[in-house]
Design a protein that fits this description.
The chain is of the alpha+beta class and 58 residues long. Helices cover 29% and strands 14% of the residues. It contains two helices and two strands; from the N terminus they run E-H-E-H. It has a two-stranded antiparallel sheet with strand order 1-2. The longest helix has 9 residues. The chain is globular, with a radius of gyration of 12 Å.
């Protein structure tokens, strides 16, 4: 699990560096500084741009 690339939660496509993604997550209760990539990977669900637009339009 450590070091795995994030995947789209809809189609399981690997998320590559520079890809535009959408993240579904709850607004954090705590405030402070954190490493953003690790936080998003732990607390969010990634959705690739193609899946987001397909679900939005259909």
């Amino acid at each position: 699990m450590f070091g795995e690339k994030p995947k789209c939660s809809v189609c399981s496509k690997d998320i590559e560096d520079g890809d535009e993604v959408f993240v579904k997550m709850r607004y954090p209760k705590r405030k402070g500084f954190t490493e953003i990539k690790a936080y998003l990977k732990n607390e969010g669900r990634f959705i690739c741009e193609n899946c987001f637009h397909q679900n939005k339009s259909g």
